[in-house]
Amino acid sequence: MTILVVRHGSAGSHLAWEGDDDDRPLDPRGVAQAASLAETFADFPVSVVLSSRTVRCQQTVLPLARRTGLEVAPDPVLYEGASLQALRLVETLARDDDQKNTTVLCSHGDVISEMLHNLMLTGLRTYGDRGCAKASVWELSCRGGVVVEGRYHHPPTA
User: Fold this and answer.
1) Residue range 78-106: mean pLDDT, rounded
2) Per residue, what are the HEC states of 87-142?
3) Angle between helices 55-67 and 28-40 in degrees, nearest 10
4) Is there a contact between 116 and 108 (Cβ–Cβ < 8 Å)?
5) Which of 40-44, 93-97, 116-120 has the lowest mean pLDDT?
6) Within 13 Å, how many C-alpha atoms sit on residue 124's CB side?
7) DSSP character string of 28-54
8) CB of 33 within 8 A of CB of 86?
9) CB neighbours of 76 closer than 8 A, spacing ≥ 6?
10) What values do phi and psi take at 152, rounded to 5?
11) Burial of 23 by CB count in 10 Å (0-12 exposed, 13-18 middle, 19+ buried)?
12) Percent of the chain scoring above 70 in pLDDT
């Protein structure tokens, strides 16, 4: 099984946004990043798309979900500050015995960084660069019920 952990795309400054931060949408660059992510991961056999409840997260993975005929399902464990719950979700998904499916998770920098830190402490091997830039993706490979490898994909140049 593969888990794609996506950080939401560019959404402008939260300081300049006057509404509830959960409602802050992608900016034009973020919209282009979301479209590029859908192209980049189009060949993955995506079966589930989960996202933080924030508009910017849902908009980031919506083009990929639509491309695969799926809906984006909000999941509270992907919301800001829920890194331990997100880690438990990834561990649960890793135990899925369908090795052909791909699950997409879209979250926030704090959640993703902490989740990866904990996975590395338990043996996750990483290849290539490391990071957590907006619109970046961590491709996690699962075998034997655990996450064993992680590969960082830089954000698309949009």
Assistant:
1) 87
2) HHHHHHHHCCCCCCCEEEEEECHHHHHHHHHHHHHCCCEEECCCCCCCCCEEEEEE
3) 30
4) no
5) 93-97
6) 25
7) HHHHHHHHHHHHHTTTS-EEEEEE-SS
8) no
9) 53, 82, 85
10) -90, 130
11) exposed
12) 97
Task: Specify the pLDDT at position 16.
Answer: 79
77, amino acid identity: V
Q: Can you give the pTM of this predicted structure?
A: 0.94
Bridge partners (DSSP) of residue 141 are 2, 149
What confidence score (pLDDT) does residue 3 get? Answer: 96
Say how far apart CA 65 and CA 48 lie, in whole Å: 8
Q: How many Å apart are CA 155 and CA 134, to the nearest integer?
A: 7
What separation in angstroms does the CA of 111 have from each of 38, 96, 117, 151? Answer: 22, 22, 10, 17
